[in-house]
């Protein structure tokens, strides 16, 4: 045997192994990265036009602040450290131009409206303290300001109506810690083990029982993670109506079912053994049962959506384009996410869609809980928009947008990734049919929709705000509620007002009501409101007269006045209520958009209540009124602290004006009842806690516009449905085999707190 033969065989084997390895690596190696394809975008007008609705830039906000500091002739203190007796800038936001001016610019080739800001100022350092609103412009270089307070509200806004600044809450906390609690050292040490840091305070609103009051119950909790469900049984009523902080005083104290004149009396009663003490077990820093830390280790990753050929939508400045849709978006300090100039197939269907208010009314047998009526717009649904966590709050590969605001400070604040935009495959068909009669075929369309989302965290609650755009021309507005339930200390007959969630925790019963403004422009600005429904009629069968048939028939009614178009919460509303255009479709029907509401709301509050007018928008599941520049919102940020003399009362909008062939606005209210239960621990889930509305084309088109979608699938029994040119899904293994480019996970939610 040739001695070189083993070496030759070894070399040959090595070469074969190398070749096979290369082949395996080439087949089983890493897939190529996904590459974006040129997107098909219909012409929808100039992108720069959408900037007429754009939020103020940080530079513009700063310019407004500098202008006001130099032109009002009074000292302005930074709101972040202002006392009630100071003058300060509470907020600066976009002043949206009048609709007529904007439409002349967008549609008529008119001049761009001047860019202006709306500044809210608190004047506490004046003989007549008041709240004043100024329009400042033109931006970016302000040269004028005008007081619009009287024009908007019919008079000056009293100072006691001002939303509470963060600085005032800090001053109240200092008062509670250094003055109020200091008066009962023995009680606090022995009952609460108080060390100056282990107690958290939660405010309640409104502040009192009548106009002019500024008296607030503060509920005490253990200062741990998820403190909202750790009440200790102590609540303190503070009178902070004086602009002089040194004059603030405790008006009443509540502990474990008993009321006391002040903390001194509570201390005396405790020392003398005249108090029924219910000592709460001290919770660890993570909150124990209220901790949101997962109780299970990580396992297989949840499903993740990606776009194999890149996003099919575009975001430029404040405009979004998607599958025939276009709209501008913005973020109001008080009302949060809002949309303008919403168009489908190039035609405007809505001028403005946005949230107006979020209301919660609580019940309890503790004073703080039973007196709470939160109107979250006063706190600021936009101000408290939170940074979004990639992959949980929104899909990982969504487009994330930073927003800016100026409130409670002289400097603009940047909120990183506080708004997200994404296309979502909803995992179900938008429409489909499988034919097994006569001809054999399948036709369907995946329900893929565009979502724009923000999440506001106002105290204990998190509100997930969505606007969703479907390929059939429908728009959905939806809110999902999550976060922590608010709670009271469980004592006495507490179970009349909720469920027991833990040893001393009563999950207090409460309602949620959300109000939207929807300014539809269907086929033009002028619309009418029409109601279609069904009624049964009795008739004899023509072919068998002795037999009776109950057949449904269509009922039609034009709702001529605002009274006819105001549907109370518990009233029966026509099931097809729509904005009708002055034009008709191919089949002779008035083109329209239908309003469909998803709500489980009960009564908002008895109308005999002294504060009901402040939330009178909640009387109606739907109210349609004439659009007026002097009625821009259904409520006011000043209603929270003086609901007894509301600055804006929505009930006054409805005054029997005709609404036929007019510019109309729909005010939509949706809500639900929440009775906290054990599954709300550690906190509330979104499932089942979602309400909202749909805007759906009703004879607006000649046929369903989604038939023109590129996503449609159709094949017959005689076709090769495995061929890509017949069925694009057959190409999925090839077109979707790329690897998405996942950016590194980042989060800025804990910066600059």
From TrEMBL:
Signal peptide coordinates: none
Every Copper amine oxidase N2-terminal domain range: 76-144
Residues spanning the membrane: 7-26
An annotated GO cellular component: plasma membrane
Designated name of the protein: Amine oxidase
Active-site residues per Swiss-Prot or TrEMBL entry: 376, 461
Details of cofactor binding: Contains 1 topaquinone per subunit.
Start and end residues of each Copper amine oxidase N3-terminal domain: 163-257
Family statement drawn from the similarity comment of this UniProt entry: Belongs to the copper/topaquinone oxidase family.
Top-rank taxon, per record: Eukaryota
Gene Ontology MF terms: copper ion binding; primary methylamine oxidase activity; quinone binding
Domain Copper amine oxidase catalytic: start-end pairs: 305-707
Organism: Tichodroma muraria
Cofactor: Cu cation
Modifications after synthesis and translation: Topaquinone (TPQ) is generated by copper-dependent autoxidation of a specific tyrosyl residue.
InterPro entries (UniProt xref): Cu_Am_Ox_Cu-bd, Cu_Am_ox_TPQ-bd, Cu_amine_oxidase, Cu_amine_oxidase_C, Cu_amine_oxidase_C_sf, Cu_amine_oxidase_N-reg, Cu_amine_oxidase_N2, Cu_amine_oxidase_N3
PANTHER family, sorted: COPPER AMINE OXIDASE (PTHR10638), RETINA-SPECIFIC COPPER AMINE OXIDASE (PTHR10638:SF4)
GO biological process, one term: amine metabolic process
2',4',5'-topaquinone carried by residues: 461
The protein's Enzyme Commission number: 1.4.3.-
UniProt keyword annotations, A-Z: Copper, Membrane, Metal-binding, Oxidoreductase, TPQ, Transmembrane, Transmembrane helix
């Amino acid at each position: 045997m040739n001695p070189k033969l083993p070496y030759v065989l070894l070399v040959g084997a090595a070469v074969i192994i190398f070749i096979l390895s290369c082949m395996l690596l080439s087949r089983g190696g890493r897939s190529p990265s996904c590459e974006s394809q040129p997107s098909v975008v219909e012409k929808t007008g100039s992108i720069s036009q959408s900037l007429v609705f754009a939020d103020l830039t940080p530079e513009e906000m700063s310019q407004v602040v500098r202008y006001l500091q130099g032109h009002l002739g009074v000292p302005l203190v930074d709101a972040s450290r202002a006392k009630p007796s100071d003058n300060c800038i509470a907020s600066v936001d976009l002043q949206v131009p009048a609709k007529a001016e904007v439409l002349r610019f967008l549609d008529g080739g008119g001049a761009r409206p001047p860019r202006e800001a709306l500044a809210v100022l608190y004047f506490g350092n004046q003989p007549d303290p008041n709240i004043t609103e100024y329009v400042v412009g033109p931006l970016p270089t302000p040269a004028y300001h005008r007081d619009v307070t009287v024009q908007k509200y019919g008079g000056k806004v009293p100072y006691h109506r001002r939303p509470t600044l963060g600085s005032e809450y800090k001053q109240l906390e200092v008062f509670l810690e250094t003055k109020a609690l200091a008066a009962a050292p023995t009680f606090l040490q022995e009952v609460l083990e108080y060390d100056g840091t282990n107690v958290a305070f939660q405010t309640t609103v409104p502040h009192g029982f009548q106009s002019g009051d500024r008296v607030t119950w503060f509920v005490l909790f253990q200062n741990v993670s998820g403190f909202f469900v750790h009440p200790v049984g102590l609540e303190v009523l503070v009178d902070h109506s004086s602009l002089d902080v040194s004059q603030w005083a405790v008006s009443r104290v509540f502990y474990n079912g008993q009321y006391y004149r002040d903390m001194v009396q509570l201390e005396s009663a405790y020392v003398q053994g005249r108090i029924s003490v219910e000592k709460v077990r001290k919770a660890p820093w993570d909150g124990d049962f209220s901790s949101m830390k997962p109780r299970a280790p990580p396992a297989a990753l949840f499903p993740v959506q990606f776009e194999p050929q890149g996003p099919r939508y575009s975001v430029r400045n404040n405009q979004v384009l998607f599958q025939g849709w276009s709209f501008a978006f913005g973020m109001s300090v008080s009302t949060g996410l809002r949309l303008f100039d919403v168009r489908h197939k190039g035609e405007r269907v809505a001028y403005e869609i946005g949230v107006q208010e979020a209301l919660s009314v609580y019940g309890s047998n503790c004073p703080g809980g039973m007196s709470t009526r939160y109107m979250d717009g006063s706190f600021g649904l936009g101000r408290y928009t939170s940074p979004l966590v990639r992959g949980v709050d929104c899909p990982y590969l969504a487009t994330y947008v930073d927003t800016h605001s100026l409130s409670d400070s002289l400097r603009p604040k940047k909120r990183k990734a506080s708004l997200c935009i994404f296309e979502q495959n909803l995992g179900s068909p938008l429409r489909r049919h499988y034919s097994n009669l006569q001809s054999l075929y399948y036709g369907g369309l995946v329900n893929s929709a565009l979502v724009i989302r923000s999440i506001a965290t106002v105290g204990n609650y998190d509100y997930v705000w969505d606007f969703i755009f479907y390929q059939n021309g429908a728009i959905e507005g939806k809110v999902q509620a999550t976060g922590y339930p608010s709670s009271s200390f469980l004592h006495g007959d507490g179970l009349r007002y909720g469920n027991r969630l833990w040893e001393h925790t009563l999950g207090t019963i409460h309602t949620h009501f959300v109000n939207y403004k929807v300014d539809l422009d269907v086929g033009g600005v002028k619309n009418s409101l029409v109601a279609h429904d069904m009624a049964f009629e009795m008739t004899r069968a023509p072919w068998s007269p002795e037999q009776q048939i109950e057949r449904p028939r269509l009922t039609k009614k034009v709702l001529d006045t605002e009274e006819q178009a105001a549907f109370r919460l518990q009233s029966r509303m026509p099931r097809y209520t729509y904005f009708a255009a002055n034009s008709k479709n191919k089949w002779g029907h008035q083109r329209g958009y239908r309003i469909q509401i998803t709500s489980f709301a009960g009564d908002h509050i008895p109308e005999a209540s002294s504060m009901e007018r402040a939330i009178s928008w909640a009387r109606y599941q739907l109210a349609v009124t004439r659009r007026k520049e002097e009625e821009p919102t259904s409520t006011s940020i000043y209603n929270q602290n003086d609901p007894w003399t509301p600055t804006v009362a929505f009930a006054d909008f409805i005054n029997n004006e005709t609404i036929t062939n007019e510019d109309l606005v729909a005010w939509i209210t949706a809500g639900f009842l929440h009775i906290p239960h054990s599954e709300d621990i550690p906190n509330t889930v979104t499932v089942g806690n979602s309400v909202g509305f749909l805007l759906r084309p009703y004879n607006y088109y000649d046929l369903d516009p989604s038939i023109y979608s590129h996503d449609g699938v159709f094949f017959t029994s005689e076709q090769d449905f495995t061929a890509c040119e017949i069925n694009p899904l057959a190409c999925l293994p090839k077109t979707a085999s790329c690897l998405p480019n996942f950016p590194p996970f980042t989060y800025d939610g804990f910066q600059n707190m």
